[in-house]
């Protein structure tokens, strides 16, 4: 018996492959992430691009474990982790050229993790030439996950294996919409264009965790996610899961999302009507 599962490049990952992927992520969370959460009064953290962009031992250890397991399961895939890209930036460009790539965000929401807030997750995206074909949004605290591939609807799966469909919200009038906007990550000119428009919405905030923002969007608890920080480990899985839950995910200029995009504004919304209303509302951000 071999450790590797065959890869059918003409179709999404098989059910057996998806199960192996989920089990690997769950083991990494139990082994490398949860034992370090609130393990001491202060978690050693280092700043990467700035004081709010943190990395910890949990990020590095979980990414290493997941990457090793993925390389055994999918020996022909390009395995790209957020922390690996931080060390070697050219890896990001290789994703769009790879027939099969698997992107890892080992601890999404590291700021929350460091400060003892149980709002973090693991994100896995499988892409083909930069196009997401499978997404996984895993919550280590609840031990449940949202998963979708390009042929099946998004579903929320509990630790015992029971699942239910995830469905985005229909939306409503602009003043009734609430969602997540990564305003603090935008440059000043875009912030100045953005902030006056937020008052027209019911609520616009951020969780410091794309994993949970996209989980809530896919389950109809939020109406949209808006971001111009296009790191594929933050968005590729969420884009697909949003779409497979009934939502719409496109760049604000109307183009499809792909991992090669490094500039522009990504808008994911619960319905076409919501996406269009928000596109018009935020048009000058594109």
From TrEMBL:
User: InterPro entries attached here?
Assistant: Inositol_monophosphatase-like, Inositol_monophosphatase_CS
Q: Which Gene3D superfamilies match?
A: 3.40.190.80, Fructose-1,6-Bisphosphatase, subunit A, domain 1
Q: Which residues cross the membrane?
A: none
PROSITE patterns linked to this entry: IMP_2 (PS00630)
List UniProt keywords, sorted A-Z: Magnesium, Metal-binding
Say which domain of life the source belongs to.
Answer: Bacteria
Q: Which SUPFAM superfamilies match?
A: Carbohydrate phosphatase
Keyword set includes Metal-binding: yes
State whether keyword Secreted applies.
no
Which PANTHER family does this one have?
A: INOSITOL MONOPHOSPHATASE, INOSITOL-1-MONOPHOSPHATASE-RELATED
**Family membership noted in the UniProt record:** Belongs to the inositol monophosphatase superfamily.
> What's the protein called, per UniProt?
Inositol monophosphatase family protein
Q: Which species expresses this protein natively? A: Roseovarius ramblicola
